[in-house]
Structures are given as structure tokens and as C-alpha cells.
Design a protein that fits this description.
Strand content: under 5%
Oligomer: single chain
Largest sheet: none
Distance between the termini: 19 Å
Number of strands: 0
Protein name: BnaC08g48120D protein
Shape: elongated
Length: 75
């Protein structure tokens, strides 16, 4: 699998798990849960921010990572 595709997949999975864990803790401590749309936006924004920081560090093989993420998001 291509490096940027694998990175996006792994990081999106990690962000989704983190969001689910936060929601579980909110439920456990009797706090209000976030709507699904807000969770999706948080995960998307987290991946975008990570790809942006990776791009600014100049890691080889990740030059088009942010563009790849946006193309996949539109499909």
C-alpha cells in the first residue's frame, strides 16, 4: 500500500478510537455526548492538522498526503 494512503488510514483510525474513548468517558461520567457530525468534523480536522504538520516537516513520501486526504474525502 502507498505510504500516504497507509498513513492516512492509520491516523484516521487512531483519531476515531480517541474520539470514541472520549465519548465513552463522557458517558461514564454522566456528561452530554457530542453529535455524530461534530465527531466526524473533529476526526477530519485532526487528520488534516497532522498531515499539514507532516508536510511542513518535509517527510519523504508524504508530499501529496494532504491532497490525497481531500480527494478521498470528496469521493
Amino acid at each position: 500500500m502507498e505510504k500516504k494512503k497507509l498513513f492516512c488510514l492509520r491516523y484516521a483510525f487512531q483519531a476515531a478510537l480517541y474520539a470514541l474513548w472520549r465519548e465513552r468517558n463522557k458517558l461514564k461520567h454522566e456528561d452530554k455526548l457530542m453529535p455524530m457530525e461534530v465527531l466526524k468534523k473533529m476526526i477530519h480536522k485532526g487528520v488534516r492538522n497532522k498531515l499539514s504538520s507532516v508536510r511542513s516537516k518535509g517527510i519523504r513520501g508524504m508530499e501529496g498526503g494532504l491532497q490525497f486526504w481531500f480527494v478521498q474525502d470528496c469521493e
